[in-house]
Known about the structure:
By secondary structure, this protein is mostly helical. The chain has one domain (11-365). It contains 15 helices and no strands. The longest helix has 33 residues, at 87-119. The chain is globular and about 65 Å long.
Amino acid sequence: MSHVPSHSRNPRIEALRLVAIAGIALFHTFQPWFSAATDGSWAAGPLITWALGCVSLLGAYGNHVFFLISGLFLVPRAAQASTTAGYWPDQVRKTGRRALTILASVALYALVALAVSTWVVPVEGVSLHEAGWLVGGLEFVWLYLVFVALVPLVGWTWRCMRRPHAAVFVLVSMAFALNAYIAFLSPGEVDRGLLEWRKLMSAASYLVAFLVGGVLGETQSRRPARALAACAAVAVVVEGAAAFMGSSDVLVALSFKSTSALSFALAVLSVAYAARSADAATAPASTPTNHAAALTCRAAPCVLGFYLAQSIFSPLWRPLADALTQAAAAGGDVALLVAGTAFSLALLAVMLLTDALVRLPLLRWLGLA
Length: 369
C-alpha cells in the first residue's frame, strides 16, 4: 500500500539527519588519515585501517541520506499534487521558496566568511576575486538546489509514468554498474573537473538517491531493521577483510566518493527504517523521550548551516583537526580515534548551535522558515 510521509516532523527522520551530518564530520576529520593508511605514507596496522575504512564510508553515506530524505518528502507530495488544478503555479511558488531559502543561507555564510577573512583572520581561498570556495566547495548544496528546482517536473513525470518505481530501479542499476567500473577499474585523476564524466556520475548518483527517496515515500519495507543490520554487518566484515589482507586498493574502492554502493545501500536502508515509524513521536510531553525528540527536531534544520560552515571555513578548522589528531596519534590508535571523534562532534555542536542562533532566526525574519 502506498503512503505519503506526513508534513509534520518525524523525530526519527530528524535524528537520522543528525547521524548523517555527524558521519560527514567524522569523515572529513579522518580523511587524511585514511588516505595515508591506504597510499603507503603511513604504516598503519590492520585494526586502525579497518576502523578508518568504516569511517570512510560515512561521507557518501551522509550525503545519500540527505538526498534520500529530500526525495522521501518532496517527490510523493509533488506526484500526488500533480493531478490537481493549479499544479504548476503552486509548485513554482513552493520551489521558489525552497530555492530562496538555500540561496539566502549561502549568501549569509558567504558574507560572514568574507567579514571574518577581512577583519578577523584570513581564510584561505575566501575572496571576492576567487570563486572556488562558492562553486566546487559547495557542490553538494548546488546539486540540492538543482534537484529542488526539478521537483515539479519530477512529480508530474512520476504521475504520468505507469511504473515509476521500476524506472528508478533501472536507473539505480545503471548508475551503480558505472560506479563500480569507476571505483574498481577507472578512478581517474584525484582532482576532477566539474564536467569530467566521473564527476558527473557523482551528481547522477545523488539524483538516483533523490529518486529512490521518492520510492521509499510511497512504499514501506517489511523488515528494514533486519536488512539494515545485515547490510551494516556486511560492510564491517568486508572492510575488515580488506584491511587484514592489506588490500588498500579495495578499501579505497569500497568507499570511493559517491560511487560507494555500500554507503548507498546503508543510506537507503537507514531512511527506510526511520520512515517506517512515522508516528513514533506520540509520547506525552513530559517524558524524556519527547524532550529528546523536541531537541532533535530543533537541531536537525541546522544541518545545512553546518555543511556550509564546515566547507567554507575548512582552512580554519582543518589545521586544528590535523594538529590534534597528530598529537593524539602519539598515544596510540585508540587515542587517535577518540581525539578525532571528540573534535568532530565538538565542531558539529558549535556549528549547529551557531546556525540555530544566526541563520534560522534570519530566515524566520525573512519569512523563509
